[in-house]
Amino acid sequence: MSHTLRWFSLLLGSLLLCAGLSTTAFADEGHDRTHVGNNINIGPGEEVNDATCFGCSIRVRGHVAGAFGGSISIEDQGQVNGDATVFGGGIRLEPDVKVSGDVTVFGGRMHRDPAASVGGEVTILGGPGWIFLIFLLPMIFLGGVIALIVWGVRRLFRPSIPATA
Questions:
Q1: pTM for the complete prediction?
Q2: Based on the number of CB atoms within 10 Å of its own CB, is 82 exposed (0-12), middle (13-18) or buried (19 or more)?
Q3: Whole-Å CA distances, 108 to 39, 46, 47, 92, 143
């Protein structure tokens, strides 16, 4: 029991050390922010290379090189020096904000103040239909293929019944 406990604590300590070293090695090197499920807030005067958010929102009041997320709100003279892409949410551009690149919205809406500046193209594929085509349709197809494989395997291994005379 003591040997197992010692082995488990050594393994846990090693994992924590590796996680700590990898976090500190990449924390300030690129000034990128990538979050899953936690919102990203970029304050005034703050500069970030890329902000990537899965299942959450990005609020930009500073400067960002590029942004990708579920929802993006650019306010208080915030700037995106590249592209802003939203997947499954909306984008809000308040007065006196600037997006130097393209703005792309998949499955959501765009609220843009007339004083907001977009340097590239604006592409909006709004509505839930796009989410259906991108996610649900391939899942239905994959489910059909799996059902066909299961049916074929069951038919192949079905015990044969002798014919009666």
A1: 0.61
A2: middle
A3: 18, 27, 27, 11, 27
